[in-house]
Specification:
Shape: flat
Helix content: 55-70%
Distance between the termini: 51 Å
Strand content: under 5%
Structural class: mainly alpha
Length: about 140
């Protein structure tokens, strides 16, 4: 199991992330077996396949299949999760020529819904410091 005490750091994606996604999309588009609506649906289904591979790796890392035993590592799980992210971003690129903008707008909504308005955490900490500094009546 991964170390639960590992401090997580947040880093920005590499500057070429979206260029890489575009390049993968171009390559896949040039080598697709099916076009049109069928190709679109198959591109979306690829995401389900990748999620299944995450599940398979987790089962293998925990040894839950007695027939196979421990067949995967947590590094395998990490790799499969990366495949899910890449596949999802390529699928998003398939739906829009502006995946970065769509993703960033959606991330901002999720961030606000989950963490509050931008700067809300800093304002809350400031309010707590002010309350501590003020004498109570």
């Amino acid at each position: 199991m991964p170390d639960q005490n590992t401090q997580q750091t947040t880093t920005a994606p590499p500057a070429d992330l979206w260029a890489d996604i575009d390049a993968l999309w171009d390559w896949l588009d040039a080598h697709r077996a099916h076009g049109g609506r069928e190709g679109l649906l198959l591109r979306m289904l690829k995401l389900t396949e990748e999620v299944g591979e995450v599940a398979q790796a987790v089962i293998g890392a925990t040894g839950q299949n007695p027939r196979k035993g421990t067949s995967h590592t947590w590094d395998d799980v990490q790799s499969e999760l990366c495949d899910v992210v890449i596949t999802a971003l390529v699928a998003l690129r398939t739906l829009t020529p502006e995946p970065r903008e769509v993703f960033e707008r959606h991330l901002a909504k999720v961030r606000e819904r989950s963490l509050g308005a931008p700067g809300a955490a800093e304002r809350t900490e400031e309010a707590e410091r002010t309350e501590e500094a003020e004498p109570t009546p």
